[in-house]
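Deliverable D4.2, example record:
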Amino acid sequence: MKLIFLFLFSIGLAYGQSGQELAVGYADRYDNLPAIHIEIAEKQLYERATPMPKMIFSHVAIKKNTLIVPTGKGLITLKKYDDSPGQEDGFRGWQYMGYFPRLQMHALVSHSVSEHLGFSDMVLLDSATSDQYGIVSIGDAAVSLPIHSPDGRFLAYYYNHVYERNSCFIGLLEIRDAMISSHARISEMASFQTKNWAVEDIRWVDNKSFIVKTYVLKGRGVLEERQYTYYLARLDSAIKKTE
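Output generated by the structure prediction step:
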């Protein structure tokens, strides 16, 4: 079922002039790549790290039920996300998440419903080429908004399992130079998964490491609380194996 709705990101973008439609983040690809090295870290390191850069929202226009996104190949017109009740199953539209100036990419999430279940996918739209990169999720919902390294070379994102508490997946993508053919511009690089905690936030420390704010849910209902721990992810070994 999930594969059906991953395909919808190309259907939605077909309203305008679009580039290539690609998918990254497949589990079988990550299985053949290095694991992200994780080690315990201090809370102070997280607090000193730079939060995710602010997204720009002025690069898109909204007209009634339509999103108009500018690209190097002209304007792309998308159906705006509509979550009003009483709708039949099917494609619900696009939610605009913002623009990455460093990457020159728009971030969008597609939403669909089938048999009363919601599905969504994170898609990055290259503002120069109009190429679309759908980031594959291991669940029904979209992955988190990716966070790029200071130099713009890497993208880190996560997915917390909905039906399994205190478990998550972290993916790391590499962004190659824009002069390289676009089919290879974004690719899988390394990953990490655990059943011991979930992710609340990721912050980059430098170009080769990021810190993860994690939590473990304790209790149920009104007694539920989060216990936090911090981990530093070092990418040196993963970078060496892919160079």
